[in-house]
């Protein structure tokens, strides 16, 4: 068991190190040689866990879609909002998430193994469909359209915020995004009860966040 746990930790450390390289230099310029230098592992040890750089990139992308921190709420719309707020809160602290976004907008990487945007869209759509079934959405609101456009808007806000480090943080900007979206999709009775505070994600994750 100890050997298996050590292998898991090694695999995660490789992905985190490669994620850092993807962020710093981009997919094309990130090399195995640089990864060897950064991790202190041999090429053989790296290849034992990941046979190619492409496999490492896929590993980074696979870890990006998560419902970590989302708790059952009275309204499914709140869970949908929490999905975006939690991701915004975790993004600056977790290189794997930042690298996943960078890989998704990198034309070379995207042409090789796609993105995880469809998975995020599907995850959001599932919550929105439940919200619709509970009467939480306005009659004209279409879950598939909302989910698709929200993922596109979220990604754009993240990229712009990262490029403007002196401006508001991602937590604040994403909270504002939902504050603009929700009046157009949430029923009046539900809208007043939704929490879109930029501090909500930190409260959901607890004091360690």
Automatic annotation (TrEMBL):
Record keywords, A-Z = DNA-binding, Transcription, Transcription regulation
Q: Which InterPro entries match?
A: ArpA-like, DNA-bd_HTH_TetR-type_CS, Homeodomain-like_sf, HTH-type_TetR-like_transc_reg, HTH_TetR, Tet_transcr_reg_TetR-rel_C_sf
Q: Which Gene3D superfamilies match?
A: Tetracycline Repressor, domain 2 (1.10.357.10)
What is the top-level taxon of the source organism? Bacteria
Cross-referenced SUPFAM superfamilies, in alphabetical order?
Answer: Homeodomain-like, Tetracyclin repressor-like, C-terminal domain
> Which NCBIfam families does its entry note?
ScbR_bind_reg
Q: What is this protein called?
A: ScbR family autoregulator-binding transcription factor
Taxonomy of origin reads:
Bacteria, Bacillati, Actinomycetota, Actinomycetes, Kitasatosporales
């Amino acid at each position: 068991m100890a050997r298996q746990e050590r292998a898991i930790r090694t695999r995660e450390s490789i992905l985190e190190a490669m994620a850092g390289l993807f962020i710093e230099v981009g997919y094309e310029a990130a090399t195995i040689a640089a990864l060897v230098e950064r991790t202190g592992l041999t090429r053989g040890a790296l290849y034992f866990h990941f046979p190619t750089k492409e496999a490492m990139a896929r590993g980074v992308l696979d870890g990006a879609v998560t419902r970590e921190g989302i708790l059952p709420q009275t309204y499914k719309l709140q869970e949908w909002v929490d999905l975006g707020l939690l991701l915004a809160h975790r993004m600056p602290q977790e290189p794997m998430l930042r690298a996943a976004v960078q890989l998704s907008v990198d034309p070379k990487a995207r042409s090789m193994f796609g993105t995880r945007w469809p998975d995020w869209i599907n995850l959001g759509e599932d919550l929105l469909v439940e919200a619709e079934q509970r009467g939480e959405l306005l009659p004209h609101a279409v879950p598939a359209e909302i989910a698709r456009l929200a993922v596109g808007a979220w990604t754009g806000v993240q990229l712009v915020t990262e490029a403007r480090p002196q401006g508001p943080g991602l937590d604040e900007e994403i909270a504002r995004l939902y504050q603009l979206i929700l009046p157009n999709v949430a029923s009046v009775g539900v809208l007043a009860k939704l929490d879109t505070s930029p501090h909500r994600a930190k409260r959901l994750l607890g004091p360690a966040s």
